[in-house]
Design a protein that fits this description.
Layout lengths: L6 E2 L4 H8 L16 H21 L2 E5 L7 H6 L4 H21 L7 E7 L14 H18 L3 E7 L2 H14 L3 E6 L12 H12 L3 E5 L3 H5 L15 E6 L6 H6 L8 H6 L2 H6 L5 E4 L5 H11 L1
Parallel strand pairs: 1-2, 1-8, 2-3, 3-4, 4-5, 5-6, 6-7, 7-8
Helix pairs in contact: 2-12, 4-5, 5-6, 6-7
Length: 304
């Protein structure tokens, strides 16, 4: 990503598909849609408004592959072995690249990000891992992204710093730039209680990614990480992306929710104001759970 390049990305893919479009996603996995004509059509319909927004703003478009669950342990729950996952990860990058072209985007303004999700639950600390184990686990997905021509790898909703390091190591081995996105709880800390400043320092000390993002937390939750700070700390310049939830609910409440809390798009945008003051390098803006193109457009119009 070039210095100063602004990139529109999408909102809450899975929650939009489930609650707004009535599409069943077992295990919260969108990647099986790539295997069906109707599924690919649904994904194109979902992504098209974001491409139009980027074109209208004169910004770049970051297309995330729908592969957050396309890793071995989650894939196994859906009956997919290593060969099936490799095939769908390859197809996902090809789909994302074709999507940008089909929406009339200049190829120079479209980046394809191979999206990686956590091995375990994205909200609850699980079995401890090592960076070596995590690298081996995520390497097949990263290699598929590289082979298919992805521009970058991004791991979302991470809470395990060793897993973050492992993703970085796998990406470096495949020659791809990599972004790491941590998720935060309502107190502005990782779900295991770690401060984001410490999490970034811990990962950077071992295997620094190209940049960081924060996702799957409401803007007011993220703001708690900066409580009492007058000036942006040095680590904030490493955070290039923000993908917040529409809901102010905690992760535990979201896990139990049977309805979609999509909040108010205009308020969602204004709640980002404090984040812009504390995160001066922000260039990638989109949404996460509960958001759709209304939220992302409202956010970008306010930024513009």
């Amino acid at each position: 990503m070039g210095a100063g390049q602004r990139l529109v990305t999408d909102g809450g893919l899975e929650t939009d598909l489930i609650f707004n479009r009535g599409i069943d996603l077992p295990e919260f996995a969108a990647y099986p849609l790539l295997r069906h004509d109707w599924g690919r059509s649904a994904l194109r319909d979902y992504f098209a408004p974001y491409a139009a927004l980027a074109a209208d703003l004169g910004a770049g478009l970051l297309v995330e592959t729908p592969t957050w669950r396309a890793n071995p342990e989650w894939g196994a729950r859906l009956g997919d072995d290593a060969a099936a996952l490799r095939e769908v990860n390859l197809r996902a990058v090809e789909f994302a690249a074709a999507l940008g072209a089909s929406e009339g985007q200049d190829a120079a303004t479209v980046l394809v990000s191979g999206a990686i999700g956590p091995r375990q639950d994205g909200y609850v600390p699980g079995r401890p891992t090592t960076s070596t184990e995590a690298a081996e686990y995520h390497a097949p997905q990263v290699r598929a992204f590289a082979e298919a021509g992805a521009d970058v790898v991004t791991a979302y909703t991470l809470i395990d710093r060793a897993e973050a390091v492992g993703v970085v190591l796998a990406a470096r081995d495949s020659g791809l730039p990599v972004g790491i996105s941590f998720t935060l709880e309502t107190d502005g800390r990782l779900p295991d209680g770690t401060a984001i400043v410490d999490a970034i320092a811990e990962v950077d000390a071992v295997a620094a990614p190209d940049h960081y993002l924060l996702n799957c937390a409401h803007p007011t939750h993220v703001a708690q990480a900066f409580a009492g700070a007058d000036e942006p700390p040095a680590w904030t310049h490493r955070v290039l992306g923000m993908r917040c939830n529409a809901s102010r609910r905690s992760h535990a409440e979201l896990d139990e929710a049977t309805d979609l809390d999509d909040g108010d798009p205009a308020t969602f945008a204004t709640d980002h104001d404090v984040l812009g003051r504390h995160l001066p390098a922000l260039a990638i803006l989109g949404g996460c759970c509960g958001t759709d193109v209304r939220h992302v457009e409202s956010l970008w119009r306010r930024v513009a």
